[in-house]
């Protein structure tokens, strides 16, 4: 089968999510060792791997549903629930922990209403504590949508979130670098 482009999968997802899942599984030909790439493609297409998708993948690929579930729950790269518009990861490695990561996490929870591992009530923010982001010299560190912010103090969290909210609004409005919200 011809490999489908990411854009084609997104269109197919909008029309019929089951067909998108079928195309992803077919792309990998149910080769041995294809479970992780199939799950990665599903997450990249849908933003998460819904539990009911595992049954469909199992039926199409012959990979045991229990094996797929084990993979999704073992590897931190996979999510079984949708995330908010903005993913905030707070490093809690040793350097960040000592530099105040817990207070930064608390400030984010207070500002967004998101609990650790959860999404804010308005669906804008998902908060995750992570073991290490590899930026120890910038502790404490957070990433928002894969953009890194270093030496973040709890009292700066509101400013960072307002900046992120402005960027999200700019994208919705179709702005390309020139739009700013006050």
Automatic annotation (TrEMBL):
Pfam family, one: 2Fe-2S_thioredx
Family annotation (SUPFAM superfamilies): Thioredoxin-like (SSF52833)
Gene3D superfamilies: Glutaredoxin, NADH-quinone oxidoreductase subunit E
Cofactor annotation comment: Binds 1 [2Fe-2S] cluster.
CDD domains membership: TRX_Fd_NuoE
Key words of the record: 2Fe-2S, Iron, Iron-sulfur, Metal-binding, Ubiquinone
Binding residue positions for [2Fe-2S] cluster: 91, 96, 132, 136
Single GO term (MF): metal ion binding
Needed cofactors: [2Fe-2S] cluster
Family: Belongs to the complex I 24 kDa subunit family.
The protein, known as: NADH dehydrogenase (Ubiquinone) 24 kDa subunit
Species name: Dethiobacter alkaliphilus AHT 1
């Amino acid at each position: 089968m011809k490999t489908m482009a990411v854009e084609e999968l997104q269109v197919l997802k909008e029309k019929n999510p089951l067909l998108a899942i079928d195309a992803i599984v077919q792309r990998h030909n149910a080769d041995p060792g294809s479970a992780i790439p199939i799950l990665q493609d599903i997450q990249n297409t849908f933003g998460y791997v819904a539990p009911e998708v595992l049954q469909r993948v199992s039926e199409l690929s012959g990979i045991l549903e229990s094996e797929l579930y084990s993979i999704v729950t073992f590897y931190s790269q996979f999510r079984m629930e949708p995330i908010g518009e903005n993913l905030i990861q707070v490093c809690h490695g040793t350097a960040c922990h000592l530099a105040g990561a817990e207070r930064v996490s608390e400030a984010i929870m207070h500002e967004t209403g998101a609990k650790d591992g959860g999404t804010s009530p308005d669906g804008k923010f998902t908060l995750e504590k992570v073991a290490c982001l590899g930026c120890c010299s910038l502790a404490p560190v957070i990433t928002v949508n894969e953009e890194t912010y270093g030496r973040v103090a709890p009292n700066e969290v509101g400013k960072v979130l307002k900046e992120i909210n402005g960027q999200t609004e700019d994208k919705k409005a179709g702005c390309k670098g020139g739009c700013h919200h006050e």
